[in-house]
Amino acid sequence: MGKMTALLVALLAGATMAIQGSLNSVLGKAVGLVQGTLVVHIVGLVTALILHFVKPGPIPLKEAPWYTLLGGALGVLIIYAVAVSIPRLGVVSATTAIIVGQVTTAALVDHFGLFTLEPVPFTWLKALGFVLLVAGGWLMLR
Fold it and tell me: What is the enclosing helix (H) or strand (E) of 60?
């Protein structure tokens, strides 16, 4: 997959995250936040199982570091937090705050090469981009 295709896939992921957050917020209001989070993950499990049966293969969990399994717990926290924040802030404000938090954390993960990833230094251009991102986020929240 080339960089342009990967960028388009990432943009699609961002768009679907905004829609997912909106849907999860409505579901949380209808059935309760914890119950909505559970339903979302059950539907996600069924979807993942279908994909696994379409493209079967081994799942060698013993090959993965233990901390990689925390992604599942973080997914529950993300779904819950999004469902809580969107009704109180609106989709734009909540998504803006989410993106600022995501980019900040991503810069730290990149810079320090956390989780055995290859380090990607934090440059002055990235710092400028970060300042503009935060300024844009502030403007969106006004």
Answer: none
